[in-house]
Design brief:
- By secondary structure, this protein is an alpha/beta fold.
- It folds into four domains: about 25-55 and about 95-250, no CATH class; about 260-365 and about 380-490, 3-Layer(aba) Sandwich (Rossmann fold); about 495-665, P-loop containing nucleotide triphosphate hydrolases (Rossmann fold), CATH 3.40.50.300; about 730-810, no CATH class.
- Helix content is about 45%, strand content about 10%.
- A six-stranded parallel beta sheet has the order 3-8-7-4-6-5, with helices on both faces. A six-stranded parallel beta sheet has the order 9-14-13-10-12-11, with helices on both faces. A four-stranded mixed beta sheet has the order 16-15-18-17.
- β7 (about 415-420), α21 (about 430-445) and β8 (about 450-455) form a beta-alpha-beta unit.
- It is globular and about 85 Å long.
- Keywords: Antiviral defense, ATP-binding, Helicase, Hydrolase, Metal-binding, Nuclease, Nucleotide-binding.
Length: about 800
């Protein structure tokens, strides 16, 4: 491409390190092609091309180019797209934030398309509403591409209208139109035709007309359409910026997975599995059922299998063959705990064998990507572009709903994909309607399949009648992949529940005595508690009480995942060798972790948690019946843990209505979720500030409905700023668990001297298993003690001082090399 014309001398990205710069023209052309390719998956390729072509149109302004010249003269080498703090000199920094380069393209598109909307309105008013929605969505994507999607309406302002009406002295739109390359303007003009708006409107209307929607669903879907286009733009922009920094990345883009080869690998693996015990035959039957159903159409399916029934291999078998059948792009596993991610990733890599696992499997589970992103983290953040991705429910929810552009980049990857939700019952209650509406949109309009896997299936498709209009999961016909669930649960019944709760509760000495009794009887015992405080307290109490030869282990999220994996590997080794083993853990172990204890003691919680805990007892059927004791500690503070508190209340109702032998059966679990959901149905819209809900802010926005003539009324940014997948914002820190972790910290710090995007990304990926998430109050205490340090000046990735990490408990609030007063 000729880049020598005067207009093409306008700079989009400087590269001081290598002495060359990317022009605005080249950048816009490249992002247009990429965004169009990404948006084609959702049926709106031309719309993607248009927003890609015009997103940085404002960089044609003389003011922005003066800023570029200052950056180059100062040789700072910092990315001009960074809207956060940087190490630029005071001269260039003084211009940052004063030059609006995102409004010009938004205004150009809106002003070009709005007359066509008015013409369409004269012909077909109903169709024209979709034309206005598309005009608004395209303009909003460009106006938002550095901030995250802006509000259309806020409590006090018509934000979108004001952005479109922003004065030309501030947006430089006329000057940019004068300076821009004629070829680029001609290309843009050819796109913004009456035919473009007419056909776009018809496509969107036809899409929505396929299904019967409530008003809330309809408006929420318009927001989802906007979010998906925005995601395509953000990812295309980041890809081109990263490829400019690292041209060698380009050949790796858009490789279509060889699903046929992967299917052959799993069939070969399945054929080699031994079937020695009755449970092995049951697992094989479940797997075969999934294989047979893989040829079904895309949609929403459930895989309801008792714990230990082989869901990992069965769901992978379904997913690989389903992806092959429908030529899908990827399989994304969404999992509640990082410990299960590592376990499942290992199992998948074992299946794939000699396939290069780094090309196929991506584990993305840490919070190392900071909310306040630097230009480095923008280039390096994961966009889920591998065939098989394993991530957490927190990452998934934040990609859909959190603020900024970090998560938005990944959202389009959920189209033309299979989403496997492992342990779906862990979905936060306040996210139920947001989740249901999003999954319904993806499966209805984006050629996506969702598979809900668990032994304790929540009733997301059977919500109380009064709240169905807010969003209920629309399962496919014959959605359950496992026939005759009741019979399957009878076959896999390997434990009995012993409800030993009592009015006065169990004190520490009584619990310790019960542990000793069970260790004497069956050699191994797992105790699952509700809080980290109890995990530490009980671990310390048992150290001086248990029998000689018994090794005690502690597990909590205060330990990095590599630390937890090391402990779990040793636990499994001891269990398989029949050695006396006691493990005291928070609930991170109860969902999907493959361990087999002789006995489990579970602090009372929701029935779904109790059932999941039971799956860690007699998992492989070596005993005739394993025992799971449910007890209530006398001194346990769960007042602030609303999910646990509500779960206990619903469980107590089930204890009163069902016998112990029926507690793990589907009928009891269904009744439990009916109680649990009914009691908490007001929380499911995600209550927000000022008597609002996030569901309302992202759909009809009723409070502000009369403040705008526009179709999109969503308060995207207001909702995003209030959304948190967990109750408090978490900080993430890399901990010096071992030599490898320390080397990663050293190498990350060294990059401050000579930055390399590929190395930075690779090191952050490697650091995931050595990171710990920390609540704000703990973060503040560590900061006060100078226990955490940034890897570079103005960088938002931190590491922990070695003295504050314990090999017994993990993160500590005090200098420690032994077991001291620790926070975990």
């Amino acid at each position: 491409m000729d880049d020598s014309s005067p207009s093409r001398a306008y700079i989009a990205h400087p590269d001081i390190l290598h002495g060359h710069h990317q022009s605005v023209y080249v950048h816009l052309q490249a992002v247009s092609e990429l965004a169009g390719r990404l948006a084609a998956k959702i049926g709106f390729a031309e719309q993607g091309q248009l927003i890609g072509l015009m997103h940085d149109f404002g960089k044609y302004s003389n003011a922005f180019q003066e800023y570029m010249r200052l950056i180059i003269a100062e040789q700072t080498g910092y990315n001009p797209d960074n809207d956060e703090g940087s190490s630029e000199s005071s001269t260039s920094r003084s211009l940052k934030g004063k030059i609006d380069h995102s409004s010009a393209g938004a205004q150009w598109i809106f002003n070009s398309l709005f007359p066509h909307f008015l013409k369409l309105k004269q012909q077909d008013q109903a169709l024209a509403l979709y034309g206005l929605a598309i005009t608004q969505a395209l303009s909003m994507c460009i106006a938002s591409h550095h901030s995250g999607l802006i509000d259309s309406l806020s409590e006090n302002e018509n934000v979108f209208a004001n952005r479109i009406k922003k004065h030309d002295e501030l947006t430089h739109q006329k000057e940019c139109t004068k300076n821009a390359d004629p070829d680029l303007l001609s290309q843009a003009q050819s796109l913004v035709s009456f035919q473009f708006i007419s056909e776009s409107s018809q496509n969107l209307k036809s899409m929505f007309d396929r299904v019967v929607l409530s008003a809330i669903e309809h408006d929420y879907y318009l927001g989802m359409f906007t979010k998906m286009l925005f995601s395509c733009l953000i990812d295309a922009d980041r890809i081109d910026s990263a490829d400019f920094e690292q041209p060698s990345n380009k050949p790796e883009r858009f490789k279509q997975p060889d699903w046929a080869f992967a299917c052959d690998k799993i069939e070969s693996f399945i054929s080699r599995l031994e079937q020695v015990n009755p449970i092995d035959h049951i697992r094989a039957e479940i797997s075969d059922n999934c294989f047979n159903r893989a040829q079904d159409e895309t949609g929403i399916y459930s895989l309801t299998v008792p714990t230990g029934g082989g869901k990992t291999y069965a769901s992978l078998r379904f997913s690989l063959h389903h992806a092959k059948k429908h030529n899908l792009d990827r399989i994304i596993y969404i999992i509640p705990f990082t410990s299960i991610i590592e376990q499942n990733a290992t199992a998948i890599r074992e299946v794939l064998g000699e396939i290069d696992s780094d090309d196929w499997v991506l584990e993305h589970h840490s919070n190392l990507e900071p909310e306040q992103q630097t230009w480095r983290s923008k280039l390096a953040c994961e966009n889920w572009d591998k065939p098989i991705v394993l991530t957490t429910m927190v990452q998934f929810l934040e990609s859909m709903f959190a603020s900024g552009t970090r998560g938005s980049r990944r959202l389009h990857q959920l189209s033309n994909a299979i989403l496997v939700f492992d342990e779906i019952q862990t979905l936060p209650i306040r996210c139920v309607h947001l989740f249901n509406n999003t999954i319904n949109y993806l499966t209805r309009f984006c050629n996506t399949t969702a598979l809900m896997c668990t032994a304790t299936q929540p009733l997301l498709n059977q919500l109380p009648e009064k709240i169905k209009q807010f969003g209920e999961l629309q399962l496919s016909l014959e959605n359950e992949l496992t026939p005759n669930i009741e019979k399957l649960y009878q076959k896999l019944e390997r434990v009995s529940i012993k409800n030993v709760t009592k009015k006065e509760g169990w004190n520490e000495a009584e619990i310790t005595e019960l542990v000793q009794q069970q260790l004497s009887a069956v050699q191994s015992c797992l105790v699952i508690v509700n809080t980290k405080v109890w995990a530490k307290k009980l671990f310390q109490a048992c150290q001086s009480q248990v029998l000689d030869g018994t090794k005690i282990f502690h597990l909590s999220t205060g330990m990095c995942s590599a630390h937890r994996k090391q402990i779990l590997d040793e636990v499994r080794s001891r269990l398989s060798s029949g050695l006396a083993t006691l493990c005291i853990s928070t609930q991170l172990i109860e969902a999907g972790v493959d361990v087999d204890f002789g006995c489990v003691i579970r602090f009372v919680a929701g029935l779904d948690s109790i059932a999941q805990a039971a799956g860690r007892c007699n998992r492989n059927g070596k005993q005739q019946k394993g025992h799971v004791f449910v007890l209530n500690p006398a001194e346990e503070s769960v007042g602030m843990l609303q999910d646990i508190k509500a779960g206990i209340a619903a469980s107590n109702r089930i204890f009163a209505e069902f016998s112990e032998e029926d507690l793990l059966k589907p009928k009891a679990m269904s009744q439990y979720f009916q109680y649990y959901f009914y009691d908490r149905h007001k929380e499911m819209t995600y209550p927000a500030k000022q008597d609002q809900s996030i569901l309302n802010l992202l759909s009809s926005n009723q409070r502000n409905i009369n403040k705008t003539p526009f179709v999109l009324r969503q308060s995207f940014m207001t909702a995003a700023k209030q959304f948190k997948a967990i109750d408090a914002p978490m900080h993430s820190v890399i901990v010096p668990f071992n030599d490898e972790a320390q080397n990663i910290i050293t190498e990350l710090c060294a990059l401050d001297m000579r930055f390399d995007a590929k190395s930075y990304s690779s090191l952050l990926k490697a650091a995931q298993k050595y990171s710990v998430n920390i609540f704000p109050n703990v973060w503040q205490k560590l900061t006060d003690q100078q226990a955490v340090y940034p890897i570079a000046q103005d960088e938002a990735v931190f590491y922990l001082s070695e003295e504050f990490y314990s090999q017994d408990f993990g993160l500590s609030l005090e200098v420690t090399n032994t077991q001291q007063d620790l926070i975990f």
